[in-house]
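Hi W., the thiamine diphosphate complex you wanted:
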Amino acid sequence: MNPQTDISKEAALALLRVMLLARRIEERLIRLYHQGRIFGGVYCGFGQEAIGTATTAVSSADDLFAPCIRDMTVHLGRGTPPRDIFRQFLGRANGPTRGRDGNIHYGELHRGVFAFISHLGAMLPVVTGGVMARRRLGRPAVGFAYIGDGGTSTGDFHEAVNFAAVFDVPVIFVVENNQFAYSTPNAHQFRCRSLVDRAVGYGIQGVTADGNDVLGLHATVGALVAEIREKPRPVLLVCETMRMRGHGEHDDGSYVPRELLETWAKRCPLLVAREQLIAAGIATAAELDALDAAVQAEVNEAYQQALSDPLPNPATLMEGVYAVG
Ligand SMILES: Cc1ncc(C[n+]2csc(CCOP(=O)(O)OP(=O)(O)O)c2C)c(N)n1
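Structure:
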């Protein structure tokens, strides 16, 4: 099977659209951050857009997700409109957290997306438990739990993967191996040859994928999800990719070798998808340019909408923060 051609034009363009949306939204957020107009930090998924895009594209309504800070594409892929993302970052009263929390620390349970507690593994047991609970209620959920290379060193990662293995919980543990955990390179993070080697120790299937190839990932994860929906079990999916900006926009990432960034820039997932679609005759360059222009216009409009929306009333600050009684 050739993943570059065994996809409909509509589905292929939908994948590219989500990646473009994320990139264009983040470009705007970076500018806003440097203008001091964002509440909290900005953490970008530049270079990693294919992963959340492909995994959400093969998901179903009952599935559960725990995105990390760079996974804007998970929110978009599950249907969060760009205006709600801007409302969140601009602390608007009608955003997903109604101005209570900043940046990407939000979720929408009706879309199957948990608001995350920590980037470092705390959500992995939550997804595992959530999937078990849904399945007990007769809902055929599959879980998608995202984690960085650094996050795989935590106890939460171990507990969640081991538990899911023992109880055959269908969760895809999606490792986004972007080579750095803040300033810590992989060489100082783990000793195994590849993170996928860890699957053996848990007695589960491990799969390595090119994290910058959205069409390939779409085919790989589509097949995996179909299998584990049928026969529930967890999978460790290691996506090789690169963090193309600093840890957050406060960090210039000067500790990352420039040559490494230059090499990976040639493998930018947006670029790779564009070239594949054109080479496979699925779309023309002009069509893809038009798609990008339409996405940019949609992002501009979403931003303007959020900008005109109200900030929360300070008198209501404590409402909706703690559970009552
Ligand atoms: C207990 C704890 N220690 C440190 C941090 C700060 N911190 C947040 S993310 C992060 C690095 C995560 O690296 P990785 O898991 O590889 O994900 P990436 O940021 O590369 O996507 C660190 C050190 C934290 N949030 N919590």
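The chain is about 45% helix and 10% strand.

W.
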